[in-house]
Amino acid sequence: MRHYSVKLDSPTSSASGTVAVYGHWGRPVLVFPTELGQAFEFADHGMAAAVADLVDAGRVKLYCVDSFDAATWSADYLPLEERARRHTSYESWIVDAVVPHIRADSGDEAEIATAGCSMGAFHALNFAFKRADLFPLALCLSGNYEPAAWRSWGERGDAVYFNSPVDYVANLHGEHLEWLRSRLSVLLICGQGQWEDTTGALASTRRMAQLLGERGLRHELDLWGPDVPHDWPSWRAQFAHHLPRFC
Length: 247
What we know:
It is built from ten helices and eight strands. The protein is an alpha/beta fold. An eight-stranded mixed beta sheet has the order 1-2-4-3-5-6-7-8, sandwiched between helices. It is globular, with a radius of gyration of 17 Å. The model has no long low-confidence stretch (mean pLDDT about 95).
């Protein structure tokens, strides 16, 4: 399949990172890596190959980005609130550098979906909720959507709250909630096998689906069986199964 990579600098911060792109045309999908992962991880683990028929047919184009987790969410020597504050540099890079590149490459009218596995699923959901104007669809595989569960310590403030879907979704109301109901769609996928419990992904996925249902937000929960672990072979099968519906 056609592919290239590009290094992008944020025009609003000192942040920079790599985007690995797969495909020549189709619906753009912004793919976040697993914890501490980089732009080439998705292809290296066979995820792009798993949907090669869609990519080669021009139905989907994958934009796989670096994580900034080492300096943000995974920096567990820092209190959680500081990790959340540092996440703003990642937000600026995604919104001010990556999205304009996708627009220039795929057209201004193309609706960008987000996707990710494990911590990438958290990013996919969090970015979609915070910027549903840019990302009206989130495909979330085996995510844990509660940063407070990630080796956290210290006082929690606004930075954590506004990056914790299990917290802010529960309190959505008014006109913004109505707009999200009309705009956003979320697909939550999780296995019920090895590591889905110890990572917190299974419990968090169920909790997230409950919250979305309580707020009347458009979503779907797809739980695979007890033989489906928190691992790449599961995610390859799940991604290939669901993605054709959205492109």
